[in-house]
Amino acid sequence: MKFTVTAYAGEFGCAPESFDAVLSGQAPRIDLTELAPYAQFKPAKQVAFTQSALADNRIDRWQILINTALINSNLIESSKHAPLLMVLPFVDAKFSEMQTQLIDSVIEILPAWTTHPNSQYYLLGSAGFYQALRQADVLLRDGMEQVVIGAVDSWATEQGLLKFVSQFSDYSSVVLPASEGAVFVVLSRQALSPQTQGIEVLSCGMDAVIDRHSPNGLITLIADSVAKQAAPMPYLSLCHSGDEGLDQVSHNTLAAISGLFDANTQFFMPQMTQGDIGACYSLLHFLVSYHHYKQHIWQGTSLQIDTSSLPYVGAATYRWCD
């Protein structure tokens, strides 16, 4: 799979109104907030939200984030005939009414994209990005000129912060800021031409993890990718959640695969600077990787592993093609 990013837009709590700073991998300063609305969430006082007020519900917050991300962008107008593949927080299928509400909240403010017959929604958390990327490849190969992948998520509600804090068995271990974000990336099929620059996705997949100590599907996915490489990965991006149970999935996956990395491998933990952005994580990191390759910061192969939430996890291997 080869893609060219023709446009993008985003808004993130760690760097409000400064999306390019997020892409560059700069580490913004995230202060501990003393705002009154967060007083009851003492373990989660470290927050990175684009607006200081808590939202009544996450649908309102999503719409604020999406509108803020796109307000100074012409993405909708320039790609109004493209389908939208939207990555949303995980919602179990048994909560079908909630699923409908979340999808409807996006459709309400993005009619230009969401009315397209090929638009789809992935309520699988951040791992849904890997399915969206595969579907984007299918649509582009079938002749679609452009495909938009989007993602949105936020902890900036009372229920959200309670859920964020509940991830941690020891409150003193909450080292990540609760954050939020919205990002949209326009992919073009121009990269299918060998003369065009773009990012090549060498492998891409997701899996449901039932046993954190034996994430066999994720191990197999990454092991198959590593087996095709002549050398260890130069760049390896991991999730770091601060939750020992979640981070154990990454640890056990790395421990089970020989030849994945060596002393020269550079490790990245984007959440340490971006905060916990939930369903936005994988799409944002794809765009960060694209930026690093295009700016010649990275050369060679990179591996992205997403274990930010359960039950779904995923991984993708990238390289740049000129």
What does this structure look like?
- The longest helix is centred in the first third of the chain and has 14 residues, at 96-109.
- Helix content is 33%, strand content 23%.
- By secondary structure, it is α/β, with parallel strands linked by helices.
- Strands 1, 2, 3, 4, 5, 6, 7, 8, 9, 10 and 11 form an eleven-stranded mixed β-sheet that branches.
- It has eleven helices and eleven strands.
Give structural attributes.
322 residues, alpha/beta
The helix count comes to 11
Radius of gyration: 19 Å
Largest sheet: 11 strands, mixed
**N-end to C-end Cα span:** 14 Å
Helix percentage range:
25-40%
Short description:
The protein has about 325 residues and is an alpha/beta fold. It is about 35% helix and about 25% strand.
Give the SSE layout.
Layout: E1 2-12, H1 19-23, E2 47-48, H2 58-70, H3 75-78, E3 84-88, H4 96-109, H5 111-114, E4 120-123, H6 128-141, E5 146-154, H7 158-166, E6 178-188, E7 198-208, H8 216-227, E8 235-237, H9 244-256, E9 266-268, H10 271-274, H11 281-294, E10 302-306, E11 312-321
Parallel strand pairs: 2-6, 3-4, 3-5, 8-9, 8-10
Antiparallel strand pairs: 1-6, 1-7, 5-6, 7-11, 10-11
Helix pairs in contact: 2-4
